């Protein structure tokens, strides 16, 4: 490892920065910190660090944006993500941008130290004496496919993702390959084997129980249930189409932390599988994360029904997965199922009371439930309550992320539809102060000022909104 290595920690929570300083300084690291992502990026560009510990969710510029910009100048600098929700920036995006690893909050000193030290060791030239270090970056796998054309295409894609691929066409070739200790991952092309595939997986499990099998299959395969009855690592539907294969590979090759010396009992061994409870729980969590990522991908592509199905599967696998509830809530809200969305946002907040996005999402849901798009009309008691709940939720989100202009915009919108012009203007003004080009806030403030009869100021805001969004048709009420 490097002598006196320098670490940069970029996290908008100072407690995380100082915690990392306390953890690493006694271990001989020089630790520099920043709670501002822009300042942190300048530091990373200007200085030589052994590694960067980077939060994903930050105001102004998030971790993925930070990494994308950093990679233009420093493509090889190790970056370790710190995240409380490993599914929101997908693993695929992180891998494509060159993230080295990630740790989840809350982390222990041992967990984060181990991650950093393994990352730095992996950057050192191998001496040939430490096989664990030498083999750490290898991605050796067996690709089983009875279709030569498909096998050629899939092998090419896997190699482009950094895998060393050994192609086999059936059991006669697969059986001896399973004896190679360097190849303990099997990717099986289900469509090429038809009804024989599940039985082939069963033979693999009997011959080599430690082999981790990933089944890649077409949509709505009639053999899916048979595969899932086998002991497999993951069943993936068309994973090359939406790059889910990147996430699967990252998971299947990600080294599992070794048990700490003071905690030998990591779980009770199952007599039937030889797998510890903790490993089984980790597998379930992994499946939940992958399902959540697929839900996000379908939400972005507009396939709302499929997105809800995957988020629901993630929740079934891990009922405490707050990000899955939040993802499903967003899709339900977009699909018009407001009551379902509000219920999901409420559960996400219960599971993670410090989730500003969940409060904001529920607040927008309450606004929609109250009919906030109606510019006029009787403000019934029910509508009033909806708007009050929305404003309360935006206030909770602002307490968590006080520098987020989007939250002030939405609270301003809540006050606007409720009829509190003074507070609406104040919130739109704060959003503009935090982000001078926040066009929506200029437009929102213009409408309130117009209702107050301050026509000249309203027209100034309309003009500013039009300048910032020249391609959007903006209707001026006073013209």
Describe the structure.
There is one protein chain. The chain has 479 residues and is α/β, with parallel strands linked by helices. The chain folds into 4 domains: 128 residues, Rossmann fold, CATH 3.40.50; 118 residues, Response regulator (Rossmann fold); 53 residues, Tetratricopeptide repeat domain (Serine Threonine Protein Phosphatase 5, Tetratricopeptide repeat), CATH 1.25.40; 126 residues, Tetratricopeptide repeat domain (Serine Threonine Protein Phosphatase 5, Tetratricopeptide repeat), CATH 1.25.40. 54% of the residues lie in helices and 10% in strands. It has a 5-stranded parallel β-sheet, sandwiched between helices. Helix 1 links the parallel strand 1 and strand 2. The protein is globular, with a radius of gyration of 26 Å.
Brief descriptors of the model:
about 475 residues; about 55% helix; about 10% strand; Serine Threonine Protein Phosphatase 5, Tetratricopeptide repeat; 5-stranded parallel beta sheet; single chain; 4 domains; alpha/beta; Rossmann fold
- Counting helices, strands and paired strands, the structural category is alpha/beta
**From the 3D coordinates, which CATH architecture of the largest domain would you assign?**
3-Layer(aba) Sandwich
What is the tally of helical segments? Answer: 22
Largest β-sheet summary: 5 strands, parallel
Alpha-carbon distance between the termini?
Answer: 69 Å
Spans of at least 5 consecutive residues with low confidence: 125-136, 255-279
Mean pLDDT over the full residue set = 81
Cα Rg: 26 Å
